[in-house]
Specification:
Blueprint lengths: L1 H19 L2 H19 L4 E5 L2 H14 L11 E3 L4 H10 L7 H7 L5 E5 L6 H12 L3 E6 L12 E4 L5 H29 L1
Parallel strand pairs: 1-2, 1-3, 3-4, 4-5
Helix pairs in contact: 1-7, 2-7, 3-7, 5-6
Amino acid sequence: MESIIIKRISESIEIKNKILHDSKLLNNVLQSAQIILEAIQKGNKIIFCGNGGSAADAQHLAAELMGKFYFDRKPLPAISLTVNTSVLTAIGNDFSYEEIFIRQLQGIGERGDVLVGISTSGNSKNIIEAFKYAKNNMIKTIAFTGESGGRLKDYTDLLINVPSEDTPRIQESHITLGHIICEIVEKEIINEVDNS
């Protein structure tokens, strides 16, 4: 049992080391923070979506922005499309599971918002449908995926593709990179307040 603990921790460290040496990926993380910051500065909101464990990550990151990360500051406009079970089950039942995010986005998404989709495979149909809508309606998109980017890479403005094909390891890196983005955004917001 101890060997599996060491093996999984070592694998997680190895993937994060790959990320550290991937300048394009690191630049996309920084650009993602800048896109989110600019949207918030213009009065827009950040909208998250994902399935399963990625749904939990979507809620987690929305909470970091709406609540606080390191500092007590004003809430930042962020929402996860995964939290309303009545909406999810109604849309899934009356239309299809593929439409659970796009219909919500049609209802609350506005030009200048940012849609963050989290999919380890990059092939989640409901996220792809939402990204297609976003692309046609001036909503910027950021995709968190695994190594290949899946089909989502063809519909996103910025791709954060963790260099792994192992779902748990990808998710561990998604939350690490998501936390870093939240930290950058929060620091910039606080700097604005301090300098005003």
